[in-house]
Write a structure and sequence with these properties.
By secondary structure, the chain is an alpha/beta fold. 33% of the residues lie in helices and 22% in strands. The chain has 2 helices and 6 strands, in the order βββαββαβ. It has a 4-stranded mixed sheet with strand order 1-2-4-6, with no helix packed on it.
């Protein structure tokens, strides 16, 4: 599992924990693709009040699996990566709930 969104308790506080094989998360094409959609789902649930972003282990996303992001040397590959990345950041900024980053150790 790449990122796990814990079920929202009645308090409306969500925890989004990034992890790979039970340890620190290696950022890859799957999370790059899925994160904007996940953030959109969070935004559309009006019962959500707080989002806690965190990881697992002694560092926060210490590595990137570059090849899984596609061939960014080709225009289409770069366009997909750029568009998904922009959407992820924009959807995070557009969330109308409090966001707490509980970063565990060094972050890449």
């Amino acid at each position: 599992m790449i990122a796990r969104l814990a079920g929202r308790p009645p308090s409306g506080v969500l925890t989004l924990r990034f992890r790979t094989d039970g340890g620190p998360h290696t950022f890859d094409g799957t999370i790059h693709h899925d994160l904007p959609r996940l953030l959109e789902d969070i935004a559309f649930d009006s019962a959500n009040q707080v989002l806690v972003l965190t990881g697992t282990g002694d560092s926060f996303i210490p590595g990137i699996d570059g090849p899984s992001l596609g061939d960014v040397t080709k225009p289409m590959g770069f366009d997909v990566m750029y568009t998904e990345g922009r959407r992820g950041v924009q959807r995070l900024v557009d969330l109308e709930i409090a966001i707490i980053a509980a970063v565990n150790g060094p972050a890449t």
